[in-house]
Amino acid sequence: MPGEHEPHEAIWMAWPERTDNWRYGAKCAQQTFVEVATAISKSTPVYMAANQSQYNNAREQLPDDITVIEMSTNDSWMRDIGPSYVVNDQGERRGIDWHFTAWGGLVDGLYFPWDKDDQIAQKICEIHGDDSYRAPIVLEGGSIHVDGEGTLYTTAECLLHPSRNPEMTQKQIEVTLKEYLNIQKVLWIPKGVYNDETNGHVDNILVIAKPGEVLLNWCDDVNDPQYERSLDAYNYLTQQSDAKGRRLTVHKLPMPGPLFMDEAQASGIDSTKGMSRSIGERLAASYANLLITNKQIIMPLLDQKYDDQVMRQLGTIFPDYQITGIPALEILLGGGNIHCITQQIPAIN
Ligand code: KQY
């Protein structure tokens, strides 16, 4: 599986509309998705999946060079429902089609049904003319990061959560990941971001800048519930080597906030059992939830206190990349961020 820093043929997204996840009929979220897609399209072709009922609206709001494809979805988290691609030495590619159960299935999933989302990976592979493998494991794309050189990063909090694959041991999960993604080493960060409704996806706490070099969502406040999580992750990563035997360089990315859902942000959302949207709820905000695509970084702007500092820090770590910040509160209110709503199709020659 190539790393995200390697060339992309396309980025896929899915148009938001769920009224129990996105406030005010997803109108504010749709505007942010347009901004994200437009920024990505400066370097990478963008495909937007949209349900039939929203096709015209999506087509109207998006720039002409973004391809809108009618495709049934349950929600809009393309990182988790799209395919994870692998490429072989002959330059052939195939998609891995994981079992998707809405972040916890009937145990603690966020919605039901999820059948349309679960078909998305195969549909995307077919549109690109690529074969796909149905992998025998429940997994979301945002719960893994790979460096393209044999190392996979994940969190034990998510992959070993009782709502995912309770019948599998940690060893069996590793073996499955190694077989399907051709990776040699799995690094198990203990936990992800506090109060993340994905059960701690790695893509909300970590970014891989390049093999051997990562950025970690960092919290300095010993009284904050994120402090111990970030510290444990830092201590773990700095004691590990990757698949190539390199010690890891770990940069600390300041955590936004802490941010909490205020009254206006909690209003305009239809109430359901799965997703909790109440005033005062801690938001799982992190600058690590960014997208790397074809020498561009698309980063979420989340807190004016830190936005510029993080942009400068990214500029130092990614000196030859164009860095674009997008105000991303609306995506955060839905439970994720820019990495979670995008999925890359790797380029092949
Ligand atoms: O990958 C993600 N962060 C998805 C979050 C799903 C939230 C659903 N409300």
Task: Report on the architecture of this protein.
α1 links the parallel β1 (8-14) and β2 (46-50). The strands form 5 sheets. The chain has a 4-stranded mixed β-sheet with strand order 3-2-1-16. Strands 4-5-6 form a 3-stranded mixed β-sheet, sandwiched between helices. It contains 11 helices and 16 strands. The protein is an alpha/beta fold and 349 residues long. The chain is globular. Bound molecules: 6-aminohexanamide (KQY). 6-aminohexanamide binds at residues 21, 77, 79-80, 103, 110, 142, 197-198, 201, 275, 334-336, 340.
Uncertain parts: none
Mean pLDDT: 97
- As an assembly, this protein is single chain
Major sheet, described briefly? Answer: 4 strands, mixed
**What are the distinct ligands in this entry?**
6-aminohexanamide
**Through-space gap between termini:** 16 Å
- Count of DSSP E strands? 16
Coarse structural class: alpha/beta
Helix content: 25-40%
Q: What percent strand?
A: 15-25%
Q: Keywords for this structure?
A:
349 residues; alpha/beta; four-stranded mixed β-sheet; binds 6-aminohexanamide
